[in-house]
Each structure stands twice: as C-alpha cells, then as structure tokens.
UniProtKB/TrEMBL annotation:
It comes from Pseudofrankia asymbiotica. One of its GO terms (molecular function) is oxidoreductase activity, acting on the aldehyde or oxo group of donors, NAD or NADP as acceptor. Belongs to the aldehyde dehydrogenase family. This is Aldehyde dehydrogenase. Residues 14-482 form the Aldehyde dehydrogenase domain. The keyword Magnesium does not apply. The keyword GTP-binding does not apply. It holds the Pfam family Aldedh. Keywords: Oxidoreductase.
Length: 486
C-alpha cells in the first residue's frame, strides 16, 4: 500500500488539507515517521455534512450488506497486517510484541465481531398488554415491539495509545447499527487511521459512510463536537477534554459515549497470592509503558504483606528491560511524546516532595534518544497525595498500605475515577464481596485479563455509557417503541 495518504478522507474522496501538514514523531527515535494532514474546522464540518448525506442510504441498507462490508474491512486489515504493524509501531512507540499482537489483530477481530452482530435482529418483542379504556383511547390488548435504530452521524474521537484498536471499537459497532462516522484520530499518531481509510475505501464502504479528518490542534475535534450534522460523540481520552466535550454537546442534547481517565486500584488482601498480585500490578510497566487507562497503578496492600509485595514489585521492575521497542528483549518502550514524559516526571517530583519514596526507577534511562521513563515504584504514599489521585499514563505504580477491608475500600473509592479496579485474595467469595463495594465500572478478581463480551466503561469521572460486545450495539443506537391494537 505504500506511504499513507497525506490527505484527509471526506465523502469518499481524498482532499488536500487546508492547513498543510505537520510531522508525526517516532517516540523511540524522535525522527519523523511521516507528514499528517492539518485539516481546518471548515473541513471537519464538510466531513460531518458528507456523513449526514450518506446516512439515509447506509441506515436503510440491508443488514446482510452492512455485515458483508464490515467483514471485507476485516479481511483487508488482515491482508495488510505486515504493512500496518511497522507503521503502528513507529507511530505509537509500542514494542513489537504489543504492536503485532494487541494492535492490528484486535482491530481485525472487532470488525469480524460486528460483521456478525450486524446480522442480529434490531427488534425486541414484548408480550401484549391488556389496557383498560381511558378518555385517551379504547381498551383492549395492545401489542408492542422495541426497535434499535441508528443514532445518526457519530464523531469518533480516538486516543493515541491504541489508535487502530480504539477506532475499530467505535467504528465497527457504529456502522453495524447503520450509523455513519467521522473519525478524528489523536494528533500524535494519525497515519495508521488514514491507512485504514484507504482500506475502507478498497473494501467498498460507500462514500461518506466513513470520513477521516486529522489535525495537530483541538480545532478539528471541537468543530465536530459543535457541528449540527453530528448526533453523537464517541470519545476516549482525558477527563479534562471529556468535560469540555460534555459542555458543548449538552447544548444540543447530543448523545455521548465517553471512556475517560482511570486510576486503577489493586487491593491486595492479607491472604492474596503475592506472586500473582505482583505480576498483575507489574503489567502497568510491562504493557505499553503504562499507557493504558485500565492499568492497576495504585497498589493498596494490607500492612501485613506490604513489605513482601514491595520486594516482589522491585524485583519485577528489574526484569522489565527498557529500550528500543524494535528489540525483542524490550519490555518497556517510550512514552508517546516529550510532553507526556515531562508530565510524568513532574508528577513524580510532586510525589517525592510530598514525602513519597522512590523504591525503584524514577529516572530517564541512559538512552541517547526517545521519550523514556524507567519503571517506577513509589512507596510511603498517602491517599491525599497527587500521585495517588492523578493519572500518570506512564510506567509508575504507587503503593498505599491499609489495615482493614473498610479502609482499603475507602481508599480505592477515594478518587474521582472509577474505571477498573482489582482484588487479589485466595478467598474468591470474599473478593467478590469486596468488588461489590467498589465504585468502578470493572473489577478483576485475581486477574488483569479482560472479558471482551462484558460492558466496558466507568463510574464517576471515568466516563459515560458502556460499549464492547453486544453492549456496543446499544451504545450506538436509539430505542424506538412501536405499539398497536391487537
């Protein structure tokens, strides 16, 4: 397929960006990967208008046709896997293991999944109800059916950590339900999403059903959120940006699906398998350099096993090789940008100044280039410290001791976030009871593995709505009730 397009994709056509281009930087080498289009707010509006014009045709297309198109997209993603993986790796700085197993293949799986879901009936039948006569209408048996209907035009604003995967998780179910979309990828790594637009075009996605606009500032995304042609915003990113989106979208009562920040708590009870707990918590370092919202970044540890777990975590960090993500031995690659590294380092400095101790890491590794931070463990952390309350989105774990279960739950629930928590205990019934007390959308018991059929989303400031599995079809649909006399 060659070099990704340097133009935006609007209404089935490749369009020159109004603002020229900007460089996309490889986080490991600090070299330019390619030139991304700098679209204008007006071009974002044009993309939304193109999606609006295409909506009726796509929404009225047969389920079999939509399923066939989605399946073709999945097939072509597989065909071009070897072309996409190096681009994903270069843009995100992910290790080759993550890029080759957790990026492109997962995007393929999502298109395949929703190609199947597209064939499911949108109808939910209800039994007839005996209704007494009223001044409004005569009595009798009244039948009803609930129909899932597409929302309309969806603006899909995606994050930088898993650009292709997150985009697929939004676009595939949205299209399966008959919506049309405008994709606005993160400015740090949009080239793979432009490559996806080429694949969608080749797959025969009708003009205007998928549109892609890119830019290095917030102007394009802001224009989409405010556009009268956009009915729904699906956003994954920071709570700060999500709050701004909500303020604007609320003026027009637009539908919102938002997966925002997290500060995952891993509650390690006194009877926990400490090796299993250390491995789970260590995934913060080992999986994409901690750039994942579900990471167990707060280790809440019963005081009786605190020192033992800290010792195991320090040892685990020692096995997390930092370096070139192209090297098979590398476990921890770079952060996405110099700005993100600076933010992590600033938070670390705040923690140390407040009294936290660096048990391991805390520095930049001795590498000539790249936006690296060593796997870092902070001990002596109190719940009121910024390092215990704010999301690092980097390879940093903080440890907080507790004396009893009530204190652990209070600490876990004591931040504005509530996306993903964990409970480690050999007594799974007890762990289940603790999980029920946690104000979070997801809980892993003795595991950091995901079940992709479960609804995914957060409590509190971690988001609005749920997606994944069949629940994503609900997220991208409206419910229409139809009643009739029997």
């Amino acid at each position: 397929m060659g070099v990704p397009s340097s133009r935006i994709y609007v209404g089935g056509e490749w369009v020159e960006p109004a603002g020229g281009h900007y460089g996309v930087i490889n986080p490991a080498t600090e070299q330019v990967v390619g030139e991304a289009p700098e679209a204008s707010a007006a071009q974002a509006e044009q993309a939304a208008a193109a999606a609006r014009a295409a909506f009726d045709g796509w929404a009225s297309a047969s389920q079999a046709h939509r399923s066939e198109v989605l399946a073709k997209v999945g097939d072509l993603l597989t065909k071009y896997n070897d072309d996409l993986v190096p681009l994903v790796q270069a843009e995100t700085g992910a290790t080759m293991r993550v890029a080759s197993t957790m990026q492109v293949p997962v995007a393929v799986e999502r298109f395949q999944r929703y190609a199947r879901h597209a064939m499911e009936s949108p109808l939910v039948p209800l039994p007839p109800q005996a209704i007494d006569a009223t001044p409004l209408a005569p009595g009798g048996l009244v039948g009803a059916v609930i129909r899932r209907a597409p929302v309309g035009v969806v603006a899909c604003v995606t994050p930088y950590n898993f650009p292709l995967v997150n985009m697929a998780g939004k676009v595939a179910p949205a299209l399966a339900m008959g919506n049309t979309v405008v994709i606005k990828p993160a400015p740090q790594d949009p080239l793979q999403v432009l490559r996806f637009a080429e694949i969608a075009h080749e797959a025969g996605v009708p003009a205007g059903v998928i549109n892609v606009v890119t830019g290095s500032t917030s102007d394009v995304g802001a224009a989409l959120v405010a556009s009268p042609d956009v009915d729904m915003i699906s956003f994954t990113g920071s709570t700060t940006v999500g709050r701004r989106i909500g303020e604007v979208a609320g003026r027009d009562i637009k539908r919102q699906l938002m997966e925002l920040g997290g500060k995952g708590a891993a509650l390690v009870l006194e009877d926990a398998d400490l090796d299993k707990a250390a491995a789970g918590i260590g995934s913060t370092w080992a999986f994409h350099s901690g750039q994942i919202c579900t990471a167990p970044t707060r280790a809440l540890v019963h005081r009786s096993v605190h020192d033992q777990l800290v010792e195991k975590l320090v040892a685990y960090a020692g096995f997390c090789e930092v370096g070139d993500p192209m090297d098979a031995a590398t476990v921890v690659g770079p952060l996405i940008s110099a700005a993100q590294r600076a933010r992590v380092e600033e938070l670390l400095a705040e923690g140390v100044a407040a009294g936290a101790t660096v048990a391991v890491g805390g520095q930049r590794p001795a590498l000539e280039r790249g936006f690296y931070v060593e796997p870092t463990l902070l001990t002596g952390v109190r719940p009121d410290m910024s390092v215990a309350r704010e999301e690092f989105f980097g390879p940093v774990v903080v440890v907080l001791p507790f004396d009893d279960e009530d204190e652990a739950v209070a600490i876990a629930n004591g931040t504005p976030f509530g996306l993903y928590d964990y409970v480690f205990s050999r007594d799974t019934a007890r762990a289940y009871r603790v999980a029920a007390r946690l104000r979070t959308g997801n809980v892993g018991v003795n595991t950091v593995a995901r079940n992709h059929e479960t609804p995914f989303g957060g409590f509190k400031h971690s988001g609005i709505g749920r997606d994944c599995g069949v629940f994503a079809l609900h997220a991208y649909s409206e419910l229409q009730s139809v009643v009739w006399p029997s």
